[in-house]
Every structure is written in C-alpha cells, then in structure tokens.
Amino acid sequence: MSAAPRRGRVVTLTANPSLDRTLALPGALARGEVARLGASVTEPGGKGVNVARALAAAGADVVAVVPADAGDPLVAALSALALPLVTVPTGAPVRTNYSLTEPDGTTTKLNEPGTTLDAAVRAALTGALVAAAEGAAWVVLSGSLPPGTPEDWYADLVRAVRGTGARVAVDTSEAPLRALLAAGPDAAPDLLKPNAEELAQVTGTSEAELLADPAALSAAVARLHDGGVAEVLLTLGGDGAVLSTAAGEVWSARAPQIAVRSTVGAGDSSLAGHLLADLAGAPAADRLRRAVATGSAAAALPGSAVPTPDRVDPAAVAVTPGLPGVPGSPEPVPAAGRDVP
C-alpha cells in the first residue's frame, strides 16, 4: 500500500544569493584570446533560489528567504516571476556570478564572494526563516555562506528550525559542510545532497576512489548516516545519482541521454525534483527517479533556467536497487508513471 500523499509548503534560504549571468561562448574557452559571445542571459540565482524557482515552475507552494534590499535587482527579478519572497535588508547589493558555457555544455563559473552579513542580519534571517517554516513540510538550506559568516551557521539553523516540525534539506560544500557534519546528530539534516566532490571533502576518500569502488562509496555514505543524516541524495552529474536512506534502502539512477546546454543549477533542480516527489508521497525509488529527471531536464536548458513539468520525463530514468557499478545488479525498476505533480 503506497504512502498517503503529503502536501505542504517548502521554504528555501539562500544566504548568499546572486544574479547569475550566463555568457555563451562560440567555441572552447581560449585563455588570452578575444571571444565574440552569443546570447547572454541574466537570471536570479543562488542555490536556494534555484531550488525555489524549480519548485514554483512545477506549481509547488514555496517561499524563498533571501538577504537583499527591497530595491535590489534580484528582488525585482524574483518578483517578476511571482515567486513569494521574504527579504531581510543588508544595505549592500547582491553579488553577480558569471557562467561561461561552451557549445558542448562545458561550463566555467566565476563567482563573486557576496555581501558580508553581520550578526544582526544573521539573527534577522534566522527569525524570518523560522517564522516562514512554521507549518511547512520542508526547509532547504542551500549554497555557500557569505564572507565572515561562522562556518557552523547551517548547524545553528537546523537546530532553530527543528521546533517548527519541518524537515530540513541541506546542500552546501567545503567548510560549512564539514562544520555541519561535525556539529552532532541534533544538527544533522533529514536530507543531504552532496555531489561526489563534496562527499570526498567530508569523508577523506578521493573522488576517483568513490566513483571507482562501490565499497568505498558505500562506506562514505554510511558515515553520513552514522552522523544522523536520514537520507543522502548523491548527485553524479551525467552518471545519474544515488539515494540512500538510514533505513537501509539504496537506489541508483542512470541519467537519460540529453544534449547538455548548461549544468548551472542542474543539481538544484535535482533536489527540487526529489522534494516534489516526496510531497506527493512517492517511495524512495521514485523520489530518485524524479530527481534525476528534473536535473537532466535542467541541464538541457540554457543558463540556469529551470524546467517546467512538460520537460521532465521520469519514465526515461532507469532506477536500480543498490549502488552503481556493482556486478550482478538487478534489472532496472519500471517507472510508476509520469503523473507525479
């Protein structure tokens, strides 16, 4: 018997939002030479903003919390998308990030550091997040932290949100990720979305070994569960993804063949796809299927564009029990259908 559908609001926090400017190169990037660019696109960005945009494109109830002044171009861009917002003023402009995309989809990112958030702004953001999280199904903490922010701030935010009843998903890297996992089980998120590079950063196993050795990958993911993380959504780019639960379920998904246009925000769309399937009450295999389908659809779009539901094809994603690369793995599990909202 399938689980009853769960509906609810998703709240995202983007501590270091950005305006994402994507510049299309005519060929491979050549250092020291002049490149005559194709069409350029500027979109509101930051990982949490990307997740919120992907959720909103699928009709989900979502609120984006961002540190930004009311007159900032980021706020204007998000308001133009009719995305519900909670803003906390900082007195400084939101940063701009640049992505250089080559015709084969290779993407080079140039990210500005962002605005320093003082203690008062961080306290206001925490209060705004907790208020928005009351009654929500999920809270998403996503992206880098601005300069000067304590590395363990995400751990503090997870603890602050716990009393609202919302589950917490985190997608970050480097020092903030290490600090989160070192903070103890009470700060462990319900869902963590690393990629292979980020998993290597926190487990001490090289990325190459993780991708080549299923035993090393299994041990690395198990360390996250041992630290209190309930679910791990490990994204592997064009190689698909893995979803592992603390209850012992492990699923692998192969990404469908697509023409990659830009990988900017594809992982954020994957996280949105997982949340959409979870809100619909989907089991683990179908949560992973929707995650990979949504991320792949995003990678087929220019810039940091997010896919609409008509572009997302879960039935094209092959999902198999166990880790990728394990000899004798069972046949892929058929898709349950294409009607996950």
Automatic annotation (TrEMBL):
Keyword Nucleotide-binding assigned: yes
Carbohydrate kinase PfkB domain: residues covered: 31-310
Superkingdom to which the source organism belongs: Bacteria
GO cellular component, one term: cytosol
Alphabetically ordered keywords of this record: ATP-binding, Kinase, Nucleotide-binding, Transferase
Entries under PANTHER family matching the protein: 1-PHOSPHOFRUCTOKINASE (PTHR46566:SF5), 1-PHOSPHOFRUCTOKINASE-RELATED (PTHR46566)
Family recorded in the similarity comment: Belongs to the carbohydrate kinase PfkB family.
Name of this chain's protein: 1-phosphofructokinase
Organism name: Geodermatophilus nigrescens
